[in-house]
Amino acid sequence: MDFKPLSITELTQRLKSLIEGEFPDIWVTGEISNFHHHSSGHMYFTLKDHRAEIKCTYFRGYNQYLKFKLEEGMQVITSGAISVYEKRGQYQLSVRQMEPAGVGTLYLAFEALKKQLQAEGLFDAQYKKPLPKFSRKIGVVSSGTSAALRDIIQVLGRRAPHIELVVRPTKVQGQGAAEDIVKGIEAFQNISEVDLLIVGRGGGSLEDLWAFNEEIVARAIFASEIPVISAVGHEVDISISDLVADLRAPTPSAGAELASLQSTEIADLAQGKFHEIRLKLQSQILEHWQNIDGIEHRLAFQAPSEKIKQNQEKMHQLFHQMQYAIETKQKALQANLFGFEKHLISLSPESILHRGYALATLENGMLIRSQEDVETGEHFTLQTGKGRFEAKKIRNKERK
Amino acid sequence: MNKSKKPKHFEEALIRLEDIVSQMESGEESLENSLNLFEEGTALLTFCKEQLHGAEQKITELSNKVEKSSPEK
Question: Given A82, A353, A361, A364, which residue has the most CB atoms within 10 angstroms?
Answer without folding.
Answer: A82
